[in-house]
Each structure stands twice: as C-alpha cells, then as structure tokens.
Amino acid sequence: MTSSDDSSKMKTSSEKSNNLLAKRYIGLEKSIWTELNALPIVHKAIDLGQGFIDYAPPHYFIDLYKETLDDPNIFLHQYTREMVSL
Length: 86
Fold this sequence. Notes:
86 residues, flat
C-alpha cells in the first residue's frame, strides 16, 4: 500500500513522456522543417515543394546523383536534424 506522499511522487505516463529528451536537447525542439511546415498555414498557401514525383527523373539527374554518391567528400551527404518523436 502506498501513502499519499508516495503517490504524489509517482509520475503519470504523460508526465514521463514529456521528459524523455536528454537535457542537451532542451531548446532544440524546433527545426527548419517545423518552421517550413508552418509557413503555408500562415500565408494560406499550398506547399508544392514536398511530395513524390510520379514520373522518371531525367537521365542527367540520375547521372549527377550517382556522381555525388560516389564522391568521397562527406559534406555532400549531410542532412538537417529531424524532429525527435518518441
């Protein structure tokens, strides 16, 4: 049996889920994607920049892509950080 003091110390699952990020990530909840995704809402616009094409890309693009993948320069293969979702 738990006392009232013990039960007040227990956290609910929603309280625990709010504290899953390591302290070093506090303040980094926003990313470029959260900002970009908010812009169409603010400006009442349709975001045509995201999605999947329904046709084959041109051969020059595929050749350029292959060339980039084969390049040893690691800075060509960097991504922005994603939003953390736990």
